[in-house]
Amino acid sequence: MKVLAVSGSPRPQGNTAFLLDEVLSELEKAGIETGRIDIAQANIKPCLGHDNCAEYKKCLQHDDMDAIFKDMAEADGLIVATPVYCVCLPWLFGQVLF
Predict the structure, then answer these.
(1) Residues in contact with 4: Cβ distance below 8 Å, sequence separation at least 6, in sequence order
(2) What's the pLDDT score for residue 37?
(3) SS3 sequence of the chain
(4) How far apart are CA 74 and CA 61, in angstroms?
(5) pLDDT value at residue 84
(6) How confident is the model at residue 89 (pLDDT cuts 50, 70, 90)?
(7) What pLDDT is recorded for position 3?
């Protein structure tokens, strides 16, 4: 079993990262393989909105999203961790989710 954690925090050493590390540590103690993606460290470009992604079978942006989607699809479990700023997500994390 593999669990992938996706951190949406722009602060790589912030509270979200600390809590996510604690969860991943416990999973590893239980013998579960883990992986982690820090969205703030990834090269993610904004969507072009051309509405024909299925035709191309992969994004034309040539950024890190292809690898992120692949890792997410291969994981048995997904943990999403993000801070909430003013009742919304950090903008880059919104790009990944939506």
Answers:
(1) 34, 35, 36, 37, 71, 72, 74, 75, 77, 78, 79
(2) 94
(3) CEEEEEECCCCCCCHHHHHHHHHHHHHHHCCCEEEEEEHHHCCCCCCCCCCCHHHHCCCCCCCCHHHHHHHHHHCCEEEEECCCECCECCHHHHHHHC
(4) 22
(5) 75
(6) low
(7) 98
| Confidence class for position 8, pLDDT limits 50, 70, 90 | confident
Could you tell me if 4 and 38 are in contact, meaning their C-beta atoms sit under 8 angstroms apart? no
Nearest to 68 by CA among 89, 95, 50: 95
Neighbouring residues of 75: CB distance < 8 A, sequence distance ≥ 6: 2, 3, 4, 35
pTM of the model: 0.79
Neighbour count for residue 3 (Cβ, 10 Å): 19
